[in-house]
Amino acid sequence: MSRFANTIGTAMLIALSAGGAMAERVNVSLNGTVEQSVARLVEAVEGAGARVFATVDFSQGAASVGEELRPTTVVIFGSPRIGSTALQEKQSLALYLPLRILFFEDASGQGWAIYDDPTAVAPTHGVAADNAAVLKMKGALERFSAVAAGS
Asked: Do residues 123 and 13 lie in contact, with contact meaning Cβ atoms separated by under 8 Å?
């Protein structure tokens, strides 16, 4: 086998392996606008005693350089009580903490909330999917995304 074929074969194997390690994305349809959903999330997070660390409005950023973008916002939030417990298991989980949910409007005008399922991400860091801290992260994302969606 040629060196080129070996390289291509290795690259394909790595790509296929990485695909299996990719996080499962959870998609929740929104009842209302992105802006309304973001406001509901912020209110729910703060009402639960957690903290919103940042709200990143990509549409506003695009507009600042003369570009157009449908509503696209990421809200980064969490609780040190849950996050610290998760990080005690494996510090590399900090790549997914604080928690975050992406809100956006698709080309047809439907709004979505999307996040990575922590039970799919955790094993890629050597933490069991059923770890108590991971399940708390998943529960928080499920609850908060449902409230934000207006479910």
From this structure: no
> Rounded to an integer, what distance in angstroms lies between the CA atom of residue 109 and that of residue 133?
35
Q: pLDDT tier at 44 (50, 70, 90 boundaries)?
A: very high
Residue 80: cis peptide before it, omega within 30 degrees of 0: no
Three-state SS sequence of 80-137 = HHHHHHHHHHCHHHHHHCCEEEEEEECCCCCEEEEEECHHHHHHHHCCCCCCHHHHHH
Residue recorded with tokens 């494996």 = 90
Q: What is the pTM of this model?
A: 0.83
Residue 1 tokens read as 């086998």
DSSP state of 76: E
Question: 81 versus 44: which is more confidently predicted?
Answer: 44
User: Distance (Å, rounded) from C-alpha 117 to C-alpha 124?
Assistant: 12
Q: Would you tell me how many other CB atoms lie within 10 Å of the CB of residue 120?
A: 17
Phi, psi dihedrals of residue 48, rounded to the nearest 5°: -85, 0
- Return d(Cα 67, Cα 60) in angstroms, integer: 9
- Judge residue 109's burial from the number of C-beta atoms within 10 Å of its C-beta, 0-12 exposed, 13-18 middle, 19 or more buried: exposed
